[in-house]
Amino acid sequence: MKAQNYTDEFKKAFIRKVTSDVTRYVIEKYFEAMNTGAESDTIASLFSKDVNFYSPDHDKPTNAMTDGYKKVINCVQELKIKMKSIFFNIKSMDIDGEEAVVLAKLTARQRKTGEAIYEEFSFQFTVHNGEITRFRIYKNDITRLEDKPEEQKYANISN
Hints:
It holds the Pfam family SnoaL_2. It comes from Fodinibius salsisoli. InterPro entries: NTF2-like_dom_sf (IPR032710), SnoaL-like (IPR037401). Residues 27-134 form the SnoaL-like domain. This is Nuclear transport factor 2 family protein. 20% of the residues are buried. 32% of the residues lie in helices and 36% in strands. The termini are far apart. It is elongated. The mean pLDDT is 82. A hairpin with a 5-residue loop joins strand 3 and strand 4. The protein has 3 helices and 6 strands. It is an alpha+beta fold. It has a single domain (6-154), classed as Nuclear Transport Factor 2, Chain: A, CATH 3.10.450.
C-alpha cells in the first residue's frame, strides 16, 4: 500500500488557494474600476492583450489573436458613452483557481434619455498570471428601473 504524501496535497491546495485569491483580486479590481468610472485604459490594463472575449452585443467570440482586446476596450467605452453613473452590485462570485463566475446587477442612467435602467448579468472570467485571458458577458434585456421597484434600493445612481 502506497503512503499518502500530505506535503504534495498541501502544495496543490495552497497553489489553488493562491490562484483563487489572485483571480478574486483581479475581478474585484475590474468591478471597482467600472463602478468608479475609471479610464478605459485603466480597465483595459486588467486584460491580457490576447484576451478571448464574448458579449451578446458583439455577435460571436473573438479571435483572441486579432481583436479580443480591442473589443473589450470598445465594450467599456460604449458603456461609458451610453450610460451615466454606472453601478454594478455583485450578487455572487464563485471562484475556483483561475476560473470565476460572477452574477451582478447593473443600475445606470441612460445619457440619451436620462432614464434609469436595470440589467442582470452573468460574467465568466479566466484569470491567468494576473490578467483576464477569457471574458464572457451574458445578460438579460434592459428593464426600466421604475418597472423594478424591488431593485430601486440598488439604484445608487445620480441624475
